[in-house]
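Field reference: sequence -> structure
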Amino acid sequence: MRLVIPAVAEGTMETEVHDNFGRATYFAFINTDTDQIEFVKNTAAQKNSGAGVGAAQLCADQGADIVAAYHFGPKAYQALSAAGIKVLDLNEQKLIKEVYSDYQAGKLAEAEAGPGGNH
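Structure field:
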């Protein structure tokens, strides 16, 4: 499985998670079978509009299976879901390694579409 976490910079497991999916500078792609991490620049981040949808497409193109982030716009959430990518909610600022650890422990809740949530 390929788990994607938005990152503030290209770095390591010690890098902070970006607070906005569509505007993240980079995405950390973690192969959950091998624990290998790869950073991919989010080319959609600078768009005036549609950054979330562009970021969702980038994740789909890179073979993402799951995305864990703090804030998804409704269009980004729909685009990820339509691509068959599972969407997980984060509720506190963490490092990538902490989110990955929470994922492995089954502590991350699946995001829900609609008003009142992060989407």
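Note: Strands lie at 2-7, 26-31, 36-41, 66-69, 86-89, 109-110.
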